[in-house]
Amino acid sequence: MTKKLSRRLQELQKKVEDRPYEPLEALTLLKETATAKFSESAEAHIRLGIDPKYTDQQLRTTVALPKGTGQTIRVAVIARGEKVTEATNSGADLSGSEELIDEIQKGMMDFDVLVATPDMMPQVAKLGRLLGPRGLMPSPKGGTVTFDVTQAIAEFKAGKLEFRADRTGIVHVMFGKATFTPEDLLTNLKALQETIDRNRPSGAKGRYWRSVYVSATMGPSIQIDVNALRDLKLGDVA
Fold first, then answer.
1. What is the DSSP string of 39-96?
2. 48 CB-near residues (< 8 Å, 6+ apart)
3. Residue 163 phi/psi, 5° resolution?
């Protein structure tokens, strides 16, 4: 059964031409198509030439968005002893040891990022089935397994995001709010592109970048010219 598009979305789709757009032009159009009654996010959907079922073709890393996410990020920290106090003093929204693990096991998910110290990972491992599908499981690659909880909390609250390619090789990531200026959105998108290039999996062969689409949360997809995005220098954006 085909999903029927709302009249609002049908009208917005008429504004989008079937062609790759220059990055700034695409992001200006994204703002024009963000007409929902709430503050929409700006989303990127990037198809890469990788097959994540092979370990040398997986992509999981973090990006520090220079202009932030536009969201309040809730950080929880699982640690022990003095590190719990340090986390609380550094602005963690939740912090604790075994008791916090128990709360999460019972279904408490009142956080966007979960940081754990390495000595707590054996206990955190039992949360894998709960946290894994939500992308919340702490990992060294994601910068969420560390003894430096102060730095981790500061970075994630300032706009650091963890992302990964899904099983079909597509990266879905929020890179700001539709209320940002097109230039600020482009600064964040450029940082994301550079991060994906820097972390190219060793097993990726052939054409790495296949396509880039952006959209507001409730808006139509807009294709971006991949080469134009990669050729941009961050200094040219501001």
1. -PEEEEEEEES--TTSGGG--EEEEE-TT--SSPPPEEEE--THHHHHHHHTT-SEEE
2. 59, 165, 169, 170, 171, 196, 204, 208, 209, 210
3. -145, 165
How far is it, in rounded angstroms, from Cα 225 to Cα 211?
A: 8
- Does one domain contain both 147 and 181? no
Q: Is residue 100 domain-shared with residue 147, that is, in the same domain? A: yes
In the predicted model, residues of the chain with pLDDT beneath 50 are: 1
Please tell me whether the overall predicted TM-score, pTM, comes out greater than 0.85 for this model: no
Q: Tell me which residue range forms the domain holding 149.
A: 75-158
User: How many CB atoms lie under 10 A from the CB of residue 14?
Assistant: 8
pLDDT, residue 8, reads 75
Q: What per-residue confidence (pLDDT) applies to 203?
A: 95
Of 143, 158, 173, the residue that ends a domain is: 158
- Determine contact, residues 43/216, Cβ cutoff 8 Å: yes
